[in-house]
Amino acid sequence: MTERTRTRRPPAHPLRPETTRGFAPWAGAAAFLVPAVLLAAEAERWQGGWAETRTQLHGVLLVIVPLAAAAGCWQGGRERRRGTEELWETAVRGPLARFLAAALPLASWMAAGYLLAAVGALLATWPYARGDRPCPDLLATDAVVVAAAAVAGHVVGRLVTWRAAAPLLALGGYVVLGLSGRADVGPGRYLSPVLPVGESLLPVAWQPAAMAVWTAGLTAAAVLAYAARRRYTALLPLAAATAAGALLVQTGDGLWHTDPDRTRQVCDTSVSPQVCVNARYGELLPQVTEALSGVTGRLEGVRNLPVRFEDRPGAPGPDEAELPMLTPIGWSVVRGRLTDPEQYAWEAVMALLGRGDCDRLDARVRRADDAVENLLAPSPAQRVFDEIAAEGDAAERAELQDRRAARARLAAMDADERRAWLSAYFATVGDCDPSGVPAL
Q: What value does the mean pLDDT of the chain take?
């Protein structure tokens, strides 16, 4: 007789069942869907700016980290809920190997879900970005933080027998993380992995690595203290975490520096005044120039104008006028486009007139300002305001009639006369004294 031989399959890797079945893949799906929904709900605020996308992705950690900790806690209590703790203790593998076999797949799924949502957000920003560059500096560290939270939650699930531990851990983690970033917390806030990051800030080169060591080191120390045969080995990751934490706290505000592009401008010098936008949004310059083309065209040949419209932090310098703000994204700019060019041009003209600091203006000055505003870039709401004044009392109707007459006189001037009048008018910009304003 011929002896039949059986083909034996090699034994499956211990991590394979936990990775491909059970709770871990569902938790990973939640780690993808939750940030995806949160990001989609506020897409207008970040889609079109790489720095804004980085800030939003980092911000959703406030929700994802407690979620990961709760998922790990629920997974950690699985054997207790099944009543298989004693059977699990008889396995050939040691306690640390058993712990990692149950905890690592979930942590990997949670980190992968977050990273997948992050990649989707970066791809959604790419077609609309207008000048700055991708900011992936925090992504790897944020993924490590999510994975570490899942593993730390697993330790809690093994130690705490209460079934409500997972939701309470999520709620408590959300509150603690939310409070940890407050300024009144003191230097300890720099240890928070969800510390808010402004769009104009960049981390120093070693900050992401230090934060990863801080969070992963604490988690590794907790795991070794719980499951290792030689528990004193927990001192090594604890020492690394302590050193990283001390470095973060001592550096403080020095962990971040201002993006150099924030103070640099890109200018169109072919018009007067010149039009300059922040280098972070340099590709918006053609749109801004086009929006202001009616203003700069009517000001051609006029003297006493500012040299440029500027777009830098702080007050404009001498011979400069401030452009309307392009940020935060979601107001003037949405997905790389100016939302309302007419409104933008009117706001630029109001900054150009420069009498916002005057407590009270003479009626003649108000009429001159209104006429110039109407000539260069009338307010989109001007018709509404005029209709309201037309239905007001006698004084309001008389004031409206005077304003309309001044607008008509300025519009009726020939080009040379209008340039001369405007040159005299802009010589008085910013001055609250009505005596220098030319008559109209």
A: 88
Could you give the CA distance from residue 106 to residue 158 in angstroms, rounded to a whole number? 15
Prior bond to 328 cis, omega within 30?
Answer: yes
Q: Where are the beta strands (DSSP E) in 311-423?
A: 320-322, 333-334, 337-338
Per-residue tokens: 389: 């004044």
Tokens of 53: 């996308």
Mean pLDDT of the region 329-337: 89
CB-based contact 76:158 (threshold 8 Å): yes
Please name which of 187, 179, 194, 173 lies closest in space to residue 254, comparing C-alpha atoms: 187
Question: Could you identify the residue written with the tokens 């008018």?
Answer: 425
Q: What is the pLDDT of residues 258-300, one digit of tens each?
A: 888 888 899 999 998 999 999 888 899 999 999 999 999 999 9
Task: Judge contact between 426 and 321, C-beta under 8 A.
Answer: no
- Tell the residue number behind the tokens 């486009």, with chain if given: 337
Structure token pair of residue 323? 């452009």
Would you state the pLDDT for residue 329? 86
Please identify which residue in the block is written with the tokens 């712990």: 99
Average pLDDT over residues 137-157: 95
The angle at the Cα of 208, spanning 205 to 211, to the nearest 5 degrees, equals 135
User: How confident is the model at residue 84, as a pLDDT?
Assistant: 59
What are the tens digits of pLDDT across the range 217-245? 999 999 999 988 888 999 999 999 999 99
**106 CB contacts (<8 Å, ≥6 apart)?**
18, 23, 24, 27, 71, 72, 75, 150, 154
User: Strand pairing of 265-268 and 274-278?
Assistant: antiparallel
Give the pLDDT of residue 20: 66
Give, for 201, the enclosing helix (H) or strand (E): strand 201-203
Are 124 and 43 spatial neighbours (Cβ–Cβ below 8 Å)?
Answer: yes
CB 51 within 8 A of CB 26: no
Residue 364 · residue 76 · CB < 8 Å:
no
pTM: 0.85
What's the CA dihedral at 199, 205, 207, 208 to 10 degrees?
80
Strand locations in 255-373 (E) = 256-258, 265-268, 274-278, 308-310, 320-322, 333-334, 337-338
Which ranges in 42-94 belong to alpha helices (H)? 50-59, 61-76, 78-82, 85-89
d(CA 193, CA 214) in angstroms, rounded, equals 9
d(CA 325, CA 348): 10
Q: Using N-to-C axis directions, what is the helix angle for 139-159 and 207-227, rounded to 10°? A: 20
